[in-house]
Write a structure and sequence with these properties.
With about 210 residues, the protein is of the alpha/beta class. Helix content is about 30%, strand content about 30%. Strand 1 (about 50-55), helix 3 (about 60-70) and strand 2 form a beta-alpha-beta unit. The structure holds S-adenosylmethionine. S-adenosylmethionine binds near residues 23, 27 and 105.
Length: about 210
């Protein structure tokens, strides 16, 4: 599948109707989601026929993209039932059978039955800017406990040094694949501008 076809496919995915600020519910844009998945698929061959987890899956844009690219199975994990209801609707509209969902707090999954049960983990985690500082690293640690091959994640560029230190401590290889300008839509009332750009790293983590 071509990148532009994947992007137009992901434009059909419904997003949050009433996003919850405290859960950092902003969707990955179809453009960024398509670029991420296309790279994971074409450069690293980490999607086709793989068992994939999507942590903080929200309405499912990354899960659906992975399923469309022929993941063996993609399982989305999210805490919020409103988001998961939209996820289910998307799944039905796309008529996908290689996709499933689990409702849970991702931070409680470490050392769980899901340890090393996935080839690949993909995620756009909460960045930890809403009285939940450190949740991005909780997500990352959990993702690393679940994946056997690689974790692909988005992180604020301003936290790169901190993440690199943690990756060294955890003996994990960290590769910044791309630097993105992430366009946060003004979906929250306190945003005065139409959108806010933040610098974000697209990172691949793998065991050394
Ligand atoms: C930045 S959004 C990304 C949504 C989706 N993956 C996407 O790419 O459009 C972060 C998601 O993490 C979820 N979330 C926040 N805290 C969570 C937690 N502790 N456990 C599970 N999911 C959580 C939110 O509900 C939200 O759907």
């Amino acid at each position: 599948m071509k990148l532009k076809d994947l992007e137009s496919c992901l434009q059909q995915v419904d997003v949050f109707e009433d996003p919850k600020v405290l859960l950092e519910q902003y969707p990955t844009s179809p453009h960024i989601a398509a670029c991420m998945l296309y790279t994971i698929h074409n450069t690293f061959d980490d999607i086709k026929d793989k068992v994939v987890a999507d942590l903080g899956c929200g309405c499912g844009v990354l899960s659906i993209g992975a399923a469309v690219l022929d993941a063996g199975l993609c399982v989305g994990f999210d805490i919020d039932d409103d988001a998961l209801e939209i996820f289910q609707r998307n799944k039905e509209e796309f008529e996908l059978t290689n996709i499933d969902v689990v409702q849970c707090d991702v931070c409680s999954l470490r050392e769980s039955a899901f340890a090393k049960k996935f080839d690949t983990v993909i995620m756009n985690p909460p960045f930890g800017t809403k009285r939940n500082q450190g949740i991005d690293m909780e997500f990352l640690k959990t993702a690393l406990s679940m994946a056997t091959t690689a974790v692909y994640s988005l992180h604020k560029t301003s936290t790169r040094e901190h993440i690199q230190k943690k990756a060294n401590d955890w003996k994990v290889k960290m590769e910044v694949i791309a630097e993105l300008r992430y366009d946060l839509p003004a979906s929250y009332k306190f945003h005065k501008k139409k959108s806010v750009d933040i610098q974000v790293d697209f990172i691949r983590f793998s065991p050394t």
